[in-house]
Design brief:
MarR/SlyA-like; single chain; transcription; DNA-binding transcription factor activity; mainly alpha; WH-like_DNA-bd_sf; transcription regulation
Length: 157
Amino acid sequence: MTRLPAETERALHLFRVLVRAHRSVVEHSVRDIKSHGLNPTEFAVLELLYHKGPQPLQRIATSILLASGSVTYVVDKLEKNGMLRREACPTDRRVVYAVLTDQGRALLERIFPAHAEAIRRAVGGLSADEQETLIALLKRMGLHAQRLLDEAGARKG
């Protein structure tokens, strides 16, 4: 087997550690969400509306990284369950907003504090200073990775 350069081995190790940590933290989130009878996509839509207010359906898709067809399915289900409603945009009839209902707002007001606590516990292996440092490092790494993707896309286009 060919030995890779030390910097490549370190990058691969970082990737594996990052993926494992991500899986573990996400599992805390998913378990909490499922304990309230929701799936992660439904929760993501409700949380977006709870924190950001009414959103065009297309913006929901880009905000939570879903295909527009998937958003339609989830919004249909949440609407059927009385958690949100659709409203036409008064200035552009091509745009439809998803709006949290009183029932949806009450649900999020009840479950979100416990959800946030589950996340806090999941990342609690780091001190507050370590969390701030990790946030800055991950942002920098993510921006660098995105810049490389953008550059590669520009060369193709």
